[in-house]
């Protein structure tokens, strides 16, 4: 590499958003685009095999291997906090579940940002969200009122079904959660098998969708095994960049300092630097570069470039409460895996037909419902797995079992991401503050009670379900709150740490947590955007990869305009 290399756009992170941005921005041959990825190539066998998430999560080859701070809401536990560190980012190690969220999620975004384009939309209804999802999608059933065909993001049905999950779905219907065709039509209330980002039984990451098809372009450069350690800025801001959220810009982002092969190299961005390093990585790099809460930066002797109180704050995540039920007379992954003959059969079925248990996402069947009937939309989601284990990374239980896990889709608890010291290579402190509000604790209890109602329904009676976790002896609200603290864990959906928000007529943010405008431009810093899950003002109802692609597509169009 040259001592100083120049590009038009420098994108930090080859995750989901970074792959889309690289595709869109390099489509113009006059744009020189650089993508920087701290991890390596995504050509490892276990990345492409859907069940390979068992080997990619908590593996430094593909995962940053973050851990959270000890959390009072989790009975003082620290937990693994997986984030992709490989081409494709989290889309190379995630659950592959294609989930847009609900129309009500985007009403919250429109309210928080003052931008009605975020609304779901449809015939004679304002908003662009549904239309953009359709443009991005290549849906297995072809184009219709809800889906698109020919887009880059492949969406398929799961390639394996389980009788025990069909029975669970029937049991859910008996307590009022009806079967539906799918979850992606704006109102997810009901139960269905998840649609997945796969192509013919293989993981379809956002690198497969957007980056690999264009990696041959001569104006697109990709650096792997290269870590961004600092944003480069100057205080000369051109007049034509003092617009919108940049009205009071104090600095201009001019490039990025990189660490590659033990050497420090600066790259320059003639037009923009775009952070797509994720809800942990993007605020951490900003803080290490002097963009963040002034008090925090001063504490760790980082010179303050711009006091941005919202950087790293507003962290939101879905806390999943894993319950385990032993079942009898049912085929589950536990029962298949304990026999070497059936294990070999699973592998052979995958190699020959690209079907069977090896094509499974971490969760196969889902359900959405309201914890309170007065709510406008579902706030609970179940991920139901035909397997069980003590915790991630440990062996499967030696008995047949299922794991119906329930999570609060709209948590009111808020955490933060903060530098641990001035060294940008030191992992940040991640504090999730789960179950820190009365509302979240109440919803946790309701979710556990509703899970018990489903498991007690007649359709599951032939399988004699026996509650192993949290245990039938726990019956009071206090008991179940404590069980939630001891059982709860992340499903890896951190968002909101550089949130979009509304600005007043003078160009000032209306909320202290606002960092970006709705085009993902950083307040008070010209030439800098954050385009990833950090930008979400509030978390969506379900898996967050598809909403990240929505944000990235909108940001790409704004940049190209």
From TrEMBL:
InterPro entries: FAD/NAD-bd_sf, GMC_OxRdtase, GMC_OxRdtase_N, GMC_OxRtase_C. Keywords: FAD, Flavoprotein, Oxidoreductase. Pfam families: GMC_oxred_C (PF05199), GMC_oxred_N (PF00732). One of its GO terms (molecular function) is flavin adenine dinucleotide binding. FAD binds at residue 86. Residues 278-292 form the Glucose-methanol-choline oxidoreductase N-terminal domain. Its cofactor is FAD. It comes from the Bacteria. Transmembrane segments: none annotated. It is an enzyme of class 1 (oxidoreductase). Its EC number is 1.1.99.-. Belongs to the GMC oxidoreductase family. PANTHER family: CHOLINE DEHYDROGENASE, MITOCHONDRIAL, GLUCOSE-METHANOL-CHOLINE GMC OXIDOREDUCTASE. This is Alcohol dehydrogenase [acceptor]. The lineage of its organism: Bacteria, Bacillati, Actinomycetota, Actinomycetes, Mycobacteriales.
């Amino acid at each position: 590499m040259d001592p100083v290399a120049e590009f038009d756009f420098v994108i930090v992170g080859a995750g989901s958003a970074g792959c889309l941005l690289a595709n869109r921005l390099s489509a113009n041959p006059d744009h020189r685009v650089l993508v920087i990825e701290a991890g390596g190539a995504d050509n490892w066998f276990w990345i492409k095999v859907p069940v390979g998430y068992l080997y990619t999560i908590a593996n430094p080859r593909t995962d940053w291997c973050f851990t959270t701070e000890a959390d009072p809401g989790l009975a003082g536990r620290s937990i693994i906090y997986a984030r992709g560190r490989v081409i494709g980012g989290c889309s190379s190690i995630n659950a592959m579940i294609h989930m847009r969220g609900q129309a009500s999620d985007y009403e919250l975004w429109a309210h928080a940002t003052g931008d009605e384009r975020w609304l779901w939309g449809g015939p004679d209804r304002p908003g662009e969200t549904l239309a953009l999802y359709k443009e991005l999608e290549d849906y297995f059933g072809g184009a219709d009122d809800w889906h698109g065909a020919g887009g880059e993001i492949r969406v398929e049905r799961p390639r394996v079904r389980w009788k025990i999950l069909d029975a669970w779905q029937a049991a859910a219907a008996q307590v009022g959660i009806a079967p539906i065709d799918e979850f992606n039509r704006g109102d997810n209330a009901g139960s269905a098998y998840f649609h997945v980002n796969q192509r013919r039984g293989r993981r379809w990451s956002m690198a497969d969708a957007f980056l690999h098809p264009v990696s041959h372009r001569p104006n697109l450069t990709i650096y792997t095994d290269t870590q961004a350690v600092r944003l480069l800025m100057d205080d000369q801001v051109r007049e034509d960049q003092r617009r919108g959220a940049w009205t009071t810009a104090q600095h201009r982002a001019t490039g990025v300092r990189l660490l590659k092969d033990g050497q420090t190299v600066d790259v320059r961005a003639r037009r923009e630097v775009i952070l797509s390093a994720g809800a942990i990585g993007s605020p951490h790099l900003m803080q290490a570069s002097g963009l963040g809460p002034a008090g925090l930066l001063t504490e760790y002797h980082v010179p303050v470039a711009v006091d941005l109180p919202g950087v790293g704050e507003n962290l939101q995540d879905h806390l999943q409460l894993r319950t385990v039920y032993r079942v009898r007379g049912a085929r589950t992954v536990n029962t298949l895996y304990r026999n070497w003959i059936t294990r070999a059969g699973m592998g052979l079925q995958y190699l020959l037909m690209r079907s069977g248990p090896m094509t499974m996402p971490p969760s196969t069947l889902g359900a959405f419902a309201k914890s309170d009937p007065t709510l406008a939309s579902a706030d609970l989601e179940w991920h139901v797995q035909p397997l069980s284990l003590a915790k991630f990374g440990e062996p499967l239980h030696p008995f047949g079992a299922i794991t119906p896990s329930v999570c609060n889709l709209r948590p009111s608890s808020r955490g933060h991401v903060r530098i641990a010291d001035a060294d940008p290579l030191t992992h940040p402190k991640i504090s999730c503050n789960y179950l820190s509000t009365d509302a979240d604790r109440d919803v946790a209890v309701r979710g556990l009670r509703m899970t018990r109602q489903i498991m007690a329904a007649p359709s599951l009676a032939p399988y004699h379900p026996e509650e192993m976790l949290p245990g039938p002896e726990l019956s009071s609200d206090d008991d179940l709150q404590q069980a939630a603290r001891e059982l709860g864990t992340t499903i890896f959906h951190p968002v909101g740490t550089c949130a979009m928000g509304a600005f007043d007529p003078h160009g000032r943010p209306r909320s202290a947590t606002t960092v970006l405008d709705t085009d993902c431009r950083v307040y008070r810093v010209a030439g800098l955007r954050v385009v990833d899950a950090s930008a979400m003002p509030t978390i969506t109802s379900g898996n967050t990869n598809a909403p990240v692609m929505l944000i990235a597509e909108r940001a790409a169009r704004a940049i190209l305009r």
